[in-house]
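writing this on my phone so excuse typos. first protein, seq and then structure
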Amino acid sequence: MASSALPRLVVITDWRLPPERLKWALTRALEAGPEVAVQHRHPEATGRRFLEEARELAALCHARGNPLFVNGRVDIALLVGAHVHLPAHGPAPTDVRPHLPAGRLISAAVHDVAEARWAEGADLALVSPVFPPGSKPLDTRPPLGPEGFRALSGTLPCAALALGGITPERAAALPDAAGFAVISGVLEAEDPAAAARTLLAARSGRAMLRPL
């Protein structure tokens, strides 16, 4: 049976950054290798602007062989040849899967046990917040911490990536994570490529396989 590796690091866009800085940081992060994915997230954008940004990111990722996930917009993911990320309280993976071409991945947002059950049918889950998120200082949700992440990820039917305040030091405290998802930890790093490689090294040898 054929298999393919899932990303071990997902870099989520922050369009509050100057666009040139964002694109430079993403380009540098992708230099860390094909296990780095980008998730296009821009809740404030109009549909047209979100599509234009998705096309730019698709060109960036596809040229380098890196995965692109589109947050919440299955239609736009289909238009640009991307994978899909499903936010909490949206369509379930089982609703979306029949409409995707073969080989497309689904990631799901998970914050609690109820959402973990909802994630059935996803290829991977972004579990958060594990630590206080650096990019969301007003987030009042209590962080899961390493023990909470371990307990919640243990209920998931798919691989779990840790999201929220992830640094190399904190990554070392999460041996159960199949990978990590980050925003400021890579996008605002002085050297995004080095930051991405450091996080990948924390999960060295733990590549995830998905049956096709």
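second protein below, same order as before
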Amino acid sequence: MHRINEQIAAIGIVPVIKLTNPERDAVPLAKALCAGGVAVAEVTFRAAGAERAIRLMKEACPDMLVGAGTVTTTGHIDKALAAGGQFIVTPGFDPELVAYAKEKGVPIYPGCTTPTDYHAALKFGLEVIKFFPAEQSGGLAKIKAMSAPFPQFKVMPTGGISLGNLEAYSACPCICACGGSYMVTAELIENGRWEEITQLCRRSREIVEGARKGMAV
């Protein structure tokens, strides 16, 4: 497995972040995530200045894994990489974007929810795929069903993940990590509630680790 895939899997949770004011929030947010044991972030291009946020987070926490989410163009990939981004996440499966990311040597996690998506990912030799939107697309039951014909994939469910269902997802052997925004909501970020974000990250890590220990028994 690719080194970055292994690092993300070891953490088990990927905060999905939309920053409307990166100059103010990127650095304290990065520090809050790392303090909570979640040294990884998916910064979405749904907000302007995503590449600036990526750069600021990497500068503040060099050992942190920072990638770009909601990537829909090759231009987004170029901007993310120029800012120091280390992985790419797309909402759906776009062969052009997957091919471009592979050409650039950066891991890409495309959104896949159907057998057709999985077949396409298989042809590109991907190791990890995003299952999005997870809860709305059949959730854990569908992920388990899809893993039967496609056991080679590790899956990153995103969409509807919360503290309430994190344990169930994390206990599934085919899950690489869970993407979520519950620990980085707009309200938490806008009000600078960094300690609360840190605590949510710590709790998330505890849940993931507990689920995985139970799975190993």
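The mean pLDDT is 97. thats all i got for now
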